[in-house]
Write a structure and sequence with these properties.
Keywords: Luminescence, Oxidoreductase. This protein is an alpha/beta fold. It has three domains: 4-89, Beta-grasp domain (Ubiquitin-like (UB roll)); 102-197, Translation factors (Elongation Factor Tu (Ef-tu), domain 3); 204-340, 3-Layer(aba) Sandwich (Rossmann fold). It contains eight helices and 19 strands. It has helices at 23-29, 127-130, 176-187, 222-234, 257-265, 291-297, 313-324, 337-340, and strands at residues 4-9, 13-18, 47-57, 62-66, 73-76, 80-82, 86-89, 102-113, 118-124, 140-144, 150-154, 164-170, 190-197, 212-218, 241-247, 269-275, 287-288, 305-310, 333-334. Strands 1, 2, 3, 4, 5, 6 and 7 form a seven-stranded mixed β-sheet that branches. A six-stranded antiparallel β-sheet has the order 11-10-13-8-9-12. A hairpin with a 3-residue loop joins strand 1 and strand 2. Helix 6 (291-297) packs parallel to helix 7 (313-324). It is globular and about 80 Å long. The N and C termini lie far apart (48 Å).
């Protein structure tokens, strides 16, 4: 049996390392990524800090054994091989599936109205960033104004398509930051962004074939749901996909023909447009309900379901409570709300 050691990184992650395999290769084999270049220890980009344990380093040649309380030492992950269980710190390590966050200045390709207060913004990645920037379907970016004020927006386009990034932005006249962002986007040729961000995303390759996917959005939360749906369809996913889009009144919908087109073209896609205040939408002949109520009304249980939801904290937690009452487990529902507005 091949001997192995444990590498504990940044006091968070534990990776098994076969005897004779470098720290770098052990991490890469486990799906982690870190900065590197020459792979020989010369460039020093792969530097790490050994906290505890024994290593042998090929270049610069070094044998080192540290015990708890010893002074930490710099080593190079590409050339250092564990000789015992070790603890190391590595700056910039990305766990499996995590992408490197970058700042870019993008050309503003288009700003077009989609409704009375929602705009579609298309940003064009610079040539140097197009191949270097990655994001998952469902992640978001931050727009950074010249005065360094920031605002987060879901990326409304799937990573499978062009180098353009799509955003859906609601202009709120009473919101100072909202007005400043729209004025910048409508009157300048470029904007600074930082991406990707967020843990609420979906990768088609990770789906089990029997998983039912439920995408639930309120208002401009549709941008995130749109990106996930387009990613799934681009990868020809055959799982059942239920899209719920809730609005207060009918006039708050925009691009609503798009999900209906998906449902027309794909038998596994089911779309539910839901209005919560039908009294203020006299021409509305569709479904009326609060979004959480609409979702739970359609399912006896949530076995083998994964829910991705985007909207206000109140809506998201109402959906959580309603679905958990029918057996949904905590790890089956995903939302950025859980990170920026955790329940106390």
């Amino acid at each position: 049996m091949t001997k192995s050691y444990q590498i504990t990184v940044n006091d968070q992650y534990v990776v098994e390392a076969e005897a004779g395999v470098s720290i770098f290769d052990s991490l890469r084999n486990a799906g982690y990524s870190m900065r590197f270049s020459c792979r020989n220890g010369v460039c020093e980009i792969c530097k790490a800090t050994l906290i505890v344990g024994s290593i042998r380093q090929r270049y610069p040649e070094l044998e080192l054994q540290l015990s708890e309380g010893d002074k930490p030492a710099q080593i190079f992950a590409c050339t250092a091989v564990p000789r015992s269980d070790i603890r190391v710190n590595i700056d910039g390590l990305l766990r499996p599936g995590e992408l490197r966050v970058k700042k870019l200045v993008c050309d503003i390709a288009a700003v077009e109205p989609l409704s009375h207060d929602v705009y579609r913004v298309r940003l064009h990645l610079p040539v140097t960033g197009r191949h270097a920037v990655e994001f998952h379907a469902g992640q978001y970016l931050e727009i950074i104004l010249p005065d360094q004020r920031r605002a987060a927006f879901s990326i409304g386009s799937a990573p499978d398509f062009s180098s353009d990034i799509e955003l859906h932005i609601r202009r709120m006249p009473e919101g100072e930051l909202s007005v400043a962002i729209m004025e910048h986007l409508q009157n300048n040729p470029s904007v600074e962004i930082e991406l990707p961000k967020g843990e609420c995303y979906l990768e088609a390759a990770s789906l089990k074939p029997d998983t039912t996917i439920i995408l639930a959005a309120a208002s401009t939360g549709f941008a995130q749901i749109k990106a996930i749906a387009e990613h799934l369809l681009a990868n020809q996913v055959k799982n059942p996909i239920h899209i719920y889009w809730g609005a207060r009144v009918e006039a708050d919908f925009y691009l609503e023909k798009l999900p209906l087109q998906w449902a027309h073209e794909h038998t596994n896609v089911h779309v539910h447009l839901v209005v919560s205040e039908p009294g203020n939408s006299p021409g509305w002949g569709g479904r009326t309900a609060l979004l959480p109520a609409a979702v739970v009304a359609d399912f006896d249980n949530f076995d083998n379901a994964e829910i991705f939801t985007s909207g206000s904290p109140a809506m998201v937690y109402a959906l959580v409570d309603a679905c958990e009452a029918k057996g949904l487990q905590e790890d089956q529902i995903h939302s950025d709300v859980f990170a920026y507005a955790p329940r106390k």
